Amino acid sequence: MDMMGADSYIQSRVEQYQGWYDARAQTYKRAYRRIRYTQLIASTLIVALSSGTLIAGDLTLLGLDIDQISRVLIVIFGLIVTIVTSLENTFRPKDLWRTYRMTEQVLQSEKLAFLARQKGYSGLSDDDAFSQFFNVVEEQIISENKMTLDVQTSA
């Protein structure tokens, strides 16, 4: 295939996938961080409220017993921790974020090596270099699909 075919392939396939992987990596990174922050805040509040119930004794706030309010809040925050932990274990955003980011970076590295004729591309004819590039890219996309399927079905 000539270099115009390679340029077309890079634009229509490689860069399109890079954009898709980058967007997914960002989405799953944000989701993972939100889950972790929620777990941290809710579990910290549970500890703080638990400590407060030991100290509060018979105090009231607006006519409500602070000890009872604390106990209800402890249950609510405990449920929040349980729910977000279950979501994290089910959807595994950290694993997906890392898989998508790694794949995007591999495609970028391979594209640059191909265009600069570095790594395994030096000394190859245009056709041989493109053939090798094509195979590496397609194998990486297939590999990512398998990893994502494994992540999604192992939860």
Q: Which short descriptors sum up this protein?
A:
rod-shaped; two-stranded antiparallel ribbon; mainly alpha; 155 residues; single chain
Summarize the main sheet.
Answer: 2 strands, antiparallel
Task: Summarize model confidence as the mean pLDDT.
Answer: 91
Strand percent estimate: under 5%
Level of helix content? over 70%
Number of strands: 2
Distance between the termini: 43 Å
Main sheet: strand order = 1-2
Poorly predicted parts: none
Spatial shape:
rod-shaped
Architecture overview:
There is one protein chain. 85% of the residues lie in helices and 3% in strands. The chain is mostly helical and 155 residues long. The longest helix is centred in the first third of the chain and has 54 residues, at 3-56. It is rod-shaped.
